[in-house]
Amino acid sequence: MHIPDELIDSLRAARHAVVLSGAGISAESGLATFRTPQTGLWERFRPEELATPGAFRRAPALVWGWYEWRRMQVMRAEPNPAHRAVVDLRTLVPELSLVTQNVDDLHERAGSQHVIHLHGRIGQPFCEACRQPHVLPAAIPDEPENGRSLEPPSCVHCGACVRPGVVWFGESLPTLEWGKAQRAASRCDVFFCVGTSSVVQPAASLVHVALGAGAVAVQVNPNPTGLESHVTYEFPAAAGVVLPEIVRRLRAVRLG
Ligand code: BV8
Ligand code: ZN
Hints:
alpha/beta; Rossmann fold; SIR2/SIRT2 'Small Domain'; six-stranded parallel sheet; 8 strands; 12% strand; binds zinc ion
């Protein structure tokens, strides 16, 4: 994988880098992505069917069962070299903001801290009424195969229905996280778009905020996303290959 010297130079001179990750950074951990053909979760279920408040109101057990199945997949997955390279990259630039669209905790389990989760976290469900966090059992007693229904639990505080701790389509992003992400994008020198199809808004607008503020933009994605003509550097390859190589090159000049 050839990494242009100019990108390494930009990273050496950078004060602040942003990494925006999507489902593709967890693909090499075995987690299904949303839109990659043949494996995409949406091949079996359409987003509007399951990842919306309406779907949960209409079919709470189907939606809760789907999220519990996905949570099981996350618990069985391990962080991959791409997650670990983001941890390493943070030690090689003065400031790094990690913004993720993912609801898994693989960045945290790789060692990243202060991860900005734009779309919530699958391991942090809460009560629909009183919004108290709901503590999940360590493992699901009878793991639901994909798509099997499971009744959502009731809140131990008020008895109302517990919902997945994610941001559904049509729901606003958490204000604090979205504000942090916008600020990071507007003041960074290098912006990485890793493993995202850049379809979902408003997350997909962040790279344009960074470009508008004069940052260098880097896309890491084996498939085209339509961002190719906008970004400064395009790596049509897996994150688990590209990110560790960028870290290796940057470390070499740092130590050089
Ligand atoms: C909001 C949590 C409004 C749940 C998710 C029409 C036009 C424009 C926008 C809209 C529209 N209609 C509706 C909207 C808004 C809507 C939206 O963007 N819809 C899309 C479908 C067009 N957005 C919203 O509703 C957002 N809220 O706008 O609120 C509002 C405002 C004020 C007041 C009230 C309301 C909320 C969006 C959040 C939705 N929740 N997730 C869950 O996980 O179930 S989104 C979901 O998609 C995940 O978070 C996922 O991360 C995200 C984005 O997908 P990607 O991460 O990019 O994953 P994808 O599979 O698409 O791509 C993976 C990529 O990886 C691929 O490109 C592949 O090539 C690549 N890859 C594969 N392997 C590798 C790899 N890359 C590197 N290495 C590899 N090895
Ligand atoms: Zn409650």
